[in-house]
Structure formats: structure tokens, C-alpha cells
Write a structure and sequence with these properties.
Helix 3 packs antiparallel against helix 10, helix 4 crosses helix 10 and helix 11 runs parallel beside helix 13. The strands form four sheets. This protein has a seven-stranded mixed β-sheet with strand order 4-12-11-10-7-5-6, sandwiched between helices. A four-stranded mixed β-sheet has the order 1-2-3-15. The chain has a four-stranded antiparallel β-sheet with strand order 13-14-17-16, with helices on one face. It has 427 residues and is of the alpha/beta class. It folds into two domains: 164 residues, Aspartate Aminotransferase, domain 1 (Alpha-Beta Complex), CATH 3.90.1150; 249 residues, Aspartate Aminotransferase, domain 2, CATH 3.40.640.10. The protein starts with 10 loop residues before the first helix and ends with a helix. Bound molecules: pyridoxal-5'-phosphate.
Length: 427
């Protein structure tokens, strides 16, 4: 008798299941992942293994600042890898020196150290603060409630959110938390052991909350008065995302007392390498030599390959005036989202953020989300996936848009249309 086989499932589904199986058996399940498997990207679009396009308004969490498969990044990788990928930091290489100079030129007088990620960049700043306070017995760093500074042991200690610390106690000592944008609370929290205050210019994971100009100017004065270092984590909000190289430059535009504002230390990563891993921190000149020979290091930090990519990205951002794009198109996006908040207040509460770092704050008790135990942010992000749009949840109520800096107006329009359709369906 002839055997009858069931119709095989689509090849696509096999591909998806195959990857899912590989992860299930072999990858440590430390991430809550969405049910999407991507195979390639082009510009502002990612393609899943079935070939379906997704408008990428998350850019790998503010990383792929030139979108996907940008030819300038490919060229830089190819050209530099033909010459030199790595030598140890026992030696000098030109790309590292040039990248440091480009960063210093954009921030202010000081020097840079190169690492491979945001958490590592912050670790370096913590060490600067420890070294700074060491001879006076000061070591403590004040950080903000709802901040995020990375997943290393010091990073989770610095992060002002309990969920990242759970199960990893004892937490590394030396960090205390102050409410964000509350200058009086910062002053009150300073102890004889305090050496530094670290904040994000715009809190990212905490839900897209920009520092107020008064807070920045006030913290600067407070740190000067109390002889503390003012450290800023620019890992997510930096690299032109807000329309200026660093968010504090944008926030303090035209603000009396904000002219010449500089932190004492600044960490960078994410968009710095456009997807190639690189992190960096800058230290203002009076303190730039605190970490002397032998005090800090990283095998991979500042390889010629990573630095060549970062240099090329800076060139493209300038040549194509992408800071202006983030500012103008970001404002258009924010206005459109504001309109949604006015038209559909039972779904969108308000929009927050600057430039291409925007948070859609969802209303409580959205009718269309009733009966699910998933957070509103997760449910909204899932609906966006079904419409072919990628975004990033933050907390329970916020959906972040962190598009590539070269997002096109027509792509922004497509995003808003699809977002509006979902909002409408939830009323
Ligand atoms: C992502 C992030 C980090 C950590 O960067 P990693 O590269 O993941 O280590 C630190 N600070 C902020 C503000 C971030 O958004």
C-alpha cells in the first residue's frame, strides 16, 4: 500500500524551529526573547528567516546608528582587516589615537580609554572615581533610581533597579541611589565617603526620562562644591541620538549657566561602533591621568578594527548631517505621537524623549489589553511585530523608539501609520 505522508510544513517554519531548537539546547536562557529569527538587514529594515521585512525602529537597542549593512561600515571592516585587526595595547596604533582625538574634539578637553561594551566603559569610570577618592578614603558613587549602567557585578550595583540585582547578592558595596532630577535629594545623600555622582543624560532602560537643564547645571555646581566627580553614562543617549553628540549638549542648548558644561567622566558604547563592539570612556583633563600605567586595561580595547569602524561612522554622520536628521525627524515623530496621545488618550498617555530617543508612554488599563497578564509594553511591542515594526519595551508602560540616525522621512511615516493602526484597534 502506498504510504501517504502529511504535507510538510513550510520551509520557513523549519528554519525558525531549527534555530529555536539550537537555542533551547545550547544557549543559556538569560534573555526573554521574542519569537523572531532574523537573517539579514538592509538600511532601516531587518528580514526574518521567512524573508518578511520589519521596519527596525529599535536599531538593536540604539546600536545600529547607520542601519543595517551600511556600505561604509562594510568597507571600513574590509579595508582595515586587510591591514591590521589587532595588536595588544602594549603598542600604539593610529586608529585608536585618531578616534580618541575625534571623541575629545566632540566632548571637551580630556582623554579617552577604549573598552568593548557599555558596562565595561562604566566599570572604567567607577575605577576612576575610586582612584580619585582613594587617598581621602572616599569611594562611594551615587546613582539614580531607575538608572541602568550594565550587567557586570559593579554595573548591577550601580543600576538603580532591584530587578537586575535579584539573586546576585551580596551586591558590590559603594553605590547608593538618589531620585532622578531631584537636586535637593542629591545634596542630602552626599556622605563623607562619597566620591562621585553618576547619571544618564536621558534615562533609557528606566523609561526615556531626560535630565532637566536645572538638574545638570545644579549637579555640576554641587559636585564642584563637594569635590565630587560628575560622571555621565552616555551609552544609550549619546552619539547624536538626541540631535547633538551628547545628550547634555542638547539639553543645555541656550540654557543660562549651561554654557561650557562638562561632566568629569563620560561613558560611550552602543552607536559608537554601529554594531561592531566598542566602548569608551572620556575623562576631563584635570583627572585624565588618574589611571596611570598598569592601573587599567583591556585586551581588545581600542583595536585598530573597532576604531576604524567608529571613525568611519563619525565621518558618515557628519557628511550626511545625521544629527540634524535625528533632531528634525525625531521632532516630527514626537509630534505625531503627541497627536496620537491627544486622539487616543485611553491608549497613549504621552510621549517623552529627545530626537531619536523616544518613549511612548501607554495608558493604564488599555481596553484592548484587558485579560492578559503580560505588561502593556510587551503586548504593544508584540502587536507591532505582527505589523512588521520593531521597537523596544522599557518597564511596564513604555515602548521605546530608537531608530537608526539615517532613518528616512518616508520610513518614519510608515512607522507612524502602523503604530496608529494598532493604537486605534486598542481603544
Ligand atoms: C546598554 C547600556 C549599558 C550597558 O551596555 P552593554 O554594552 O550592554 O554592556 C550601560 N548603560 C546604559 C545607559 C545602557 O543603555
Amino acid at each position: 500500500m502506498k504510504e501517504i505522508f502529511p504535507i510538510p510544513p513550510a520551509i520557513v517554519q523549519n528554519e525558525f524551529e531549527k534555530v529555536r531548537e539550537l537555542f533551547k539546547s545550547n544557549v543559556i536562557p538569560s534573555y526573554g526573547r521574542f519569537e523572531l529569527v532574523f537573517s539579514h538587514g538592509q538600511g532601516s529594515y531587518l528580514f526574518d528567516v521567512g524573508g518578511r521585512p520589519y521596519l527596525d525602529l529599535g536599531s538593536g537597542i540604539a546600536v545600529c546608528c547607520l542601519g543595517h549593512a551600511h556600505p561604509a561600515i562594510t568597507e571600513a571592516l574590509v579595508e582595515q582587516s586587510r591591514k591590521l585587526i589587532h595588536v595588544s595595547n602594549l603598542y600604539f596604533t593610529e586608529p585608536q589615537g585618531r578616534l580618541a582625538a575625534e571623541l575629545v574634539r566632540r566632548i571637551g578637553p580630556g582623554k579617552c580609554f577604549f573598552a568593548n561594551s557599555g558596562a565595561e566603559a562604566n566599570e572604567g569610570l567607577f575605577k576612576v572615581a575610586r582612584k580619585f577618592g582613594h587617598d581621602e578614603g572616599r569611594f562611594e558613587i551615587l546613582t539614580a533610581v531607575n538608572s541602568f549602567h550594565g550587567r557586570t557585578l559593579a554595573g548591577i550595583a550601580a543600576t538603580g533597579q532591584d530587578k537586575v540585582k535579584k539573586g546576585f547578592e551580596p551586591i558590590m558595596p559603594g553605590f547608593r541611589y538618589i531620585p532622578f532630577n531631584d537636586l535637593a535629594a542629591a545634596r542630602a545623600a552626599i556622605s563623607p565617603a562619597t566620591a562621585a555622582i553618576m547619571i544618564e543624560g536621558v534615562q533609557g532602560e528606566g523609561g526615556v526620562t531626560p535630565a532637566t537643564p536645572e538638574y545638570l547645571v545644579g549637579l555640576r555646581a554641587l559636585c564642584d562644591e563637594k569635590k565630587l566627580l560628575l560622571l555621565m553614562d552616555g551609552v544609550q543617549c549619546g552619539h547624536y541620538r538626541t540631535g547633538r553628540f551628547q545628550s547634555f549638549q542638547r539639553i543645555l542648548e541656550g540654557v543660562p549657566g549651561g554654557e561650557g558644561f562638562l561632566p568629569d567622566g563620560l561613558s560611550m558604547a552602543k552607536s559608537l561602533g554601529g554594531g561592531f563592539p566598542i566602548g569608551a570612556f572620556w575623562v576631563r583633563s584635570p583627572y585624565a591621568d588618574l589611571l596611570g600605567p598598569g592601573t587599567h586595561g583591556s585586551t581588545y580595547g581600542g583595536t585598530p578594527l573597532a576604531c576604524a569602524v567608529a571613525l568611519r561612522i563619525l565621518e558618515v554622520i557628519e557628511a550626511e548631517q545625521l544629527a540634524g536628521n535625528a533632531r528634525q525627524l525625531g521632532e516630527w515623530l514626537a509630534n505625531e505621537l503627541d497627536r496620537l496621545a491627544r486622539q487616543y488618550p485611553t491608549v497613549v498617555k504621552r510621549v517623552r524623549g529627545l530626537g531619536f530617543m523616544l518613549g511612548i508612554e501607554l495608558a493604564e488599563n488599555i481596553p484592548g489589553f484587558a485579560g492578559s497578564d503580560k505588561t502593556a509594553a510587551l503586548q504593544f511591542v508584540n502587536r507591532l511585530h505582527l505589523s512588521g515594526v520593531l521597537s523596544v519595551p522599557a518597564g511596564t508602560q513604555i515602548v521605546r523608539l530608537l531608530p537608526p540616525l539615517n532613518l528616512k522621512p518616508q520610513e518614519a511615516g510608515e512607522g507612524i501609520t502602523l503604530i496608529e493602526e494598532i493604537v486605534k484597534s486598542l481603544v
